[in-house]
## 1
Amino acid sequence: MTSIVGWAKRGLCSRYSGMNLSRACPRGNAQRGHARTLCVPNWRRLGRALPTLLALCSYAITCIVVALGWLFVPPPSTASADEIRPAYLELREVAPGEFDVLWQTPIMGDTRLDLEPEFSGEATAVSPAATRTAGGNAIRTWILRAPALRGQTLRIRGLEKTVTDVLTRIAFLDGSVAINVLQPATPSVVVPERQSKLALARNYIVFGIQHIIFGADHLLFVLGLLLIVADRWMLVKTVTSFTLAHSITLAVATLGYAHAPVEPLNAAIALSILFLGPEIARIWRGETSLTIRAPWVVAFVFGLLHGFGFAGALTGAGLPRGDLAVALLTFNIGVEIGQIAFVLLVVALERSFRQLEIDWPAWLARAPGYLIGSAGAFWTIQRTAILLGVVQ
């Protein structure tokens, strides 16, 4: 595979620019007047690539819209990173029909997210809620009486107005546990009679996929690496190195052996994206560096940082230690699925563009590199200002 950064230079320039039939058609045929028939191979090539291109572009446009929204929509407060940390709702049955409730929500600035759990059936609080703060979260506890909780619909009021997720865990006296992930698009769930281990794993895998797909900073870093790699083997080494690194720190942080403060971590992740901008520009100028010669080294070093970012989705939820092993494994699988899907999308787009032989303007071919450098600079300045308390 040719270098993805060379889209505009290797494979994307059309051989048929200017409609020169003596070049577009096989030798000698243009002189015989067979221009209509002889240009059919070009249309066949277009026909083969166009369906794939249209499908891929529709998904790419969605990703770009999400990324631009993250980049240019200003945060409502200094805690923009806090809002994407998940809330956590735990109900533990301590007597028949009686539950201890723990409701943990991220704090934005000095205010917690305005989220409230609601049930469709009989569910009454029988004790006042006790509130405390810990680790940038507001934690409320109370006792709930719900004689028939199974089969009721649990809804998180206000979730559709945020960009966060809610992990819910309901443990019953008979030993069964129901764990679900609620998102702004699906803020409710029916409490199941019994949840299989397969369904539990599927929920965490979906949570991991969504975490990476909507993590614009993580995806831009991966895109930057793809613009640097020069061949297929280097691509495999670089992606594997990034995967290994973030899996290490994801496990270390989730299991409680290390911790990275949110504000410095977010600034460091932004700086890793900014770091790739000049490296991509060096490729345009035909220069080289350690990053260009061995991008897998940079992928591993910065992958350690990104792993702490991934871990925030699990450590911020405060899951019981007994659930961490399954959550860690399946969540990481979901992250890898999302990452591989993104890599395959970029590679497939590059192949489709190369097959279509489009003659790109130089500025458009370099647009992904400019996007990465600009986003990295913007986020670095923004998150450093938040870290230093300049932005309130």
## 2
Amino acid sequence: MSCQVNTGVRRCGPDFIDKEARLDFRFRFPSDEPQRRAAGPFGLLYGALAALGWGVGLAAAHHGFSVGFEPFDLLFVRYAVAAPILLVLYRATNRSGRIAKTKGTVALTLALVGGPLLAICVVTGGRKAPFSSGILIEVAALTVSSIVLARLVLSERLGLLRTVAMLALTARLAVLAFTSLVDGSPEVCVGIALFAAGGLAAATFAALSCKWHVDPITAMTIVSSASLATFGPYYVFVGGISRLSAIPWTLLLEQMVCQGLIAGLFSWIGFLYAARILGLVTSSFMPAVTPAVAALITILISRESPTMLQWALIAFGTFAAGLLIANLHAKTAVSAQTS
């Protein structure tokens, strides 16, 4: 919360955007609400770029598995690309002081939740359950968990529309889980549960980053560096580097750009900025659109007829986008009435 004293009256309001968490924007408005409305288009742009980037990452992962990549290969590629770029960016822009100012407990918690814990869930889950099904579970769990944590941790109001949207997204998660578990072995059930736990870990990372007002670039630098430092040695120990060296460099470059640069770096930073500007509840609709984006990209690249699952993902992505637009409209209407 921030407080201002003006003509003897003390006013308090929420710091919906941390001053150090902006890129080059320096908005100055007389109150929080006009500031929020003016920054709304930027939040929507950040969220759209995050959904598009994650969709590209999912489509690239689908292609990567068909040519010999394993789930933990792509995870290593993501961290190996994102961490050095963020560290160089920090050094070049003299932003290193922000990490130094971050409390140790805050940095450790974000690194643990968004880094090794998330990596363990995804890698272990990918070895027990089909990755194509598990990643949909993870994205769905991220969406639902973000809405719940926004209410519990950030005290964001839900309202009727948001509650209906959350129930619809929860139903989607239940359907995805049921279709994956109905014909699966106990090992598959454990894998699906781990993917869902990965989505919860990612949502927790996003919620805590907003609650503690950690600059999104700082948060991603901490997480990517911690993940590379912990997961990298394990990957080298199990012989992952030798397998990557056997893959054609063009395919490896494709995954470096799609997983490391787009999905691992730009998308996550965009999502965290969108959460700060629009609120975590509204931003949580962005991951719901991601599978639809991935399905469209896969259809365009492979030129194959869409499957029933792809049509379902596209339809639900359109529905989620409609909920997002309606949610923004509802928020604007409430703001106009209270101004």
## 3
Amino acid sequence: MKIIPSLFVVAALILPVSAQNPGPTPAPPATTPAATAARQAEALYHQGSLAEKAGDPVTAEKSYTAALKADPTHANARYALGQLKLTSNTIAAKGREAKFATIIIPAFNLDAATLQEAIDALGVLIEKQSKNAVAPNFVIQDPQKKLSEVKISIKLKSMPAKAVLQYLLEQSGAKARYDEHAIVIMPNATLK
């Protein structure tokens, strides 16, 4: 009977030590090629999304295509690529328009100028302030000469070029469309 209590004491001493040190930790699961491809596809999809938001549909398309090459089952990249094909012109136009918001015009003063004179002056200031990085092409489409009679008087300081253009358009009763190679200015439908 003496043997049973001593085995019990030995077992009681061994159990707490083994509970504190359960042995070697298991290795993390190995990364599978499919998981790596999925992560790469997700990163490329994210790049495409950022490019799209920045107004760069060409880079967005390349990123979405690369994401699908890495993981052909990436549903978001497939959907975004399809949508991009439908909206790439609009996205590019927004990107061109956003560029104008980054250029600050220190002062813009006109007194009884025509719209053509105002647009020419704005174009010169945009080139100067952007250090010739942006050279806008303005085209006035006004076959009925509705805008040629309008006179613009304006005094602005420290404004983004986009805002200056918007004020010019409002004063002259015109609107703008940001095409690939030019900003096209035309009369509003309500202008008489």
## 4
Amino acid sequence: MILKLKLIILLFFYSTFIMANDVNYVEIDQDHPVHAINDQDPYESFNRTMFDFNMAFNDAIGQPVVKTYDFIFPQPIKTGINNFFSNLGDPLSSLNSFLQGNIEDGLSSFMRFTINSTFGLLGLLDIATSSGLEKINEDFGQTLYVWGVWKESNYLVLPFLGPYTTRGLAGSYIDGYTNPLYLSVIDTDINGRFWLYLGGNFVSYVNIMKVIDDLHNQPDPYVFARESYLQYRTNLIYNGNPPENDLLDDFDFE
């Protein structure tokens, strides 16, 4: 009952925000796009050092932990854990969709969270996807691009945290303070937020372990990782439909 009441309050918060704010959104031109990410790599020396550190940590600690996790938990339980943390990201994605002026996606993410939280055992079951509500990933880094206040950002690799863009890193900081999950749904302190953050990132880490393992087979693992991440972020910014002539064509991946 408390969860349903908080969901209603959250919907009211969204509706009020949209009616009270008039934001000039940037229309993304597919034919003449502005590069969302710098076609250079100005922090490459630092990034390579951090990348090597992260790979060493992965090989020594991360990979054994993931293998233990895979050994202990059967797939149905791992699927439930993955669904649970994925569901926790929907309120933030919904808010950023609204901030970008995308009302349809905002409502879709909100409905996903409502359905999975109430009928999906707090998100352990992903009922919404089978009902036609696909997962949407939006964050404040993408919102900054849509607003036109930070059109081009640089690739950055941080220790333990992995790859970011500078815009995405700044956006994640804002997301941490404005996440409606903690403002309107879950009543927890900073320690609870930390453990939920850690759990969500661990699940994401588990999901990309095969990609990380494949890096060892690449001629230049750093370049391959950079290309893959920039493609991922560009795809998010353009909502799955990036222009063919965006920044990745400008990189020399040889």
